[in-house]
Amino acid sequence: MAKLPIQFRLNGSDRATFVDPASNLLDTLRRGLGDFGPKYGCGQGTCGVCTVLVDGEPQLACLTLAVSCEGRQIETTSGMADGPNLHPLQDAFMDHFAAQCGFCTPGMLTAARALLAKNPQPSREEVVEAISGNICRCTGYEPIIAAILAAANAPGARRA
Ligand code: FES
Ligand code: FES
C-alpha cells in the first residue's frame, strides 16, 4: 500500500515522514522517528504506557492513526526536560520514588502533565482520576499520586 507523507511538530520541532495509512502514532514515533519516550504495552488501549499529548490533550498513541496527526502538536516525555533541567514532575517522581521498573512512567508523567496544565492545584481525587487510564504493576500508585501532588506546588509545574 502506498505510503502517505505526514508532517507535525514533535516536542517543538517540525518532523516529516511517510506512513502507511493504517499506521498508528506509536509506531510512527518509535520506529519512524526514533522517539522511544512513549512505550508499547498492550497495543489495544488498556494500559496507558503509550500516552502522548496531541494538541495538549492526553491521547493513546497506540489507538491514534498517524495520518490524523497531520499538522498537530505532539509532545512526549522526550521533550519534557529543559536541557539539563528536568521538568518538576520528573524531579518529583524521583524524589518520591514514583518509578520502580519505570515502564509506566512516561504515560504517568504525560497524564500528570496534562492535568497540571489545566488544573494547577488538583485534589487527590482529581489526580487519581487523571491517571486512572494508566496501569502500574509496581508502585501501588501512592508514590505516583504523592509525586504529582508535590509537583503541583513546584515552580514551573505547568510548563508545557
Ligand atoms: S500500548 Fe497503548 S494503551 Fe497500552
Ligand atoms: S513503575 Fe513499574 S509499572 Fe509502574
TrEMBL record:
Pfam families registered for this protein in UniProt: Fer2 (PF00111), Fer2_2 (PF01799)
SUPFAM superfamilies given in the database record: 2Fe-2S ferredoxin-like (SSF54292), CO dehydrogenase ISP C-domain like (SSF47741)
CDD domains (alphabetical): fer2
UniProt keyword Cell membrane, yes or no: no
Keywords (A to Z) from UniProt: 2Fe-2S, Iron, Iron-sulfur, Metal-binding, Oxidoreductase
GO MF annotation terms: 2 iron, 2 sulfur cluster binding; metal ion binding; oxidoreductase activity
Name assigned to this protein: Carbon-monoxide dehydrogenase small subunit
Gene3D superfamilies cross-referenced by the UniProt entry: 3.10.20.30, [2Fe-2S]-binding domain
Record-annotated 2Fe-2S ferredoxin-type domain positions: 4-80
